[in-house]
Amino acid sequence: MPYHSTPLDLAFHALSDPTRRAVVSRLAEGEVSVSILAEPFDMALPSFVQHLKVLEDCGLIASEKRGRSRWCRLVQARFDEAADWMASERLRWTQRLDRLETYLDNTQDEVGGD
Fold first, then answer.
1. 3-state secondary structure of 50
2. DSSP conformation class of 44
3. What is the pTM for the complete model shown?
4. For residue 72, what is the enclosing H or E element?
5. For residue 33, which of 6, 26, 44, 69 is within the disulfide window of CB 3.0 to 4.6 Å?
6. pLDDT 10s digits, 6-22
């Protein structure tokens, strides 16, 4: 199946952590330096940077050095891939539920129910 790729698995793993989801939410507002990004989190900077590494390794964010600061931004492509996978799954399950509803309606008609 095309959607069961390692990058997508890594992206969902990265998003399973609340700290990393909070980072993604903050970066949705625009790019920001690591030091500003780390401010609201009660952890040592090296620990916080590990979270950023997980997000960057799976392709959800990108970072670049500018002078003495490192800046982070979201990478839309990985989010699009995850959204496409979820839309595909939603369609598949909607179709299955529609078929089940049709089957149950037909079964009820055959039995003579209301």
1. helix
2. -
3. 0.74
4. strand 69-74
5. 69
6. 788 899 999 999 999 99
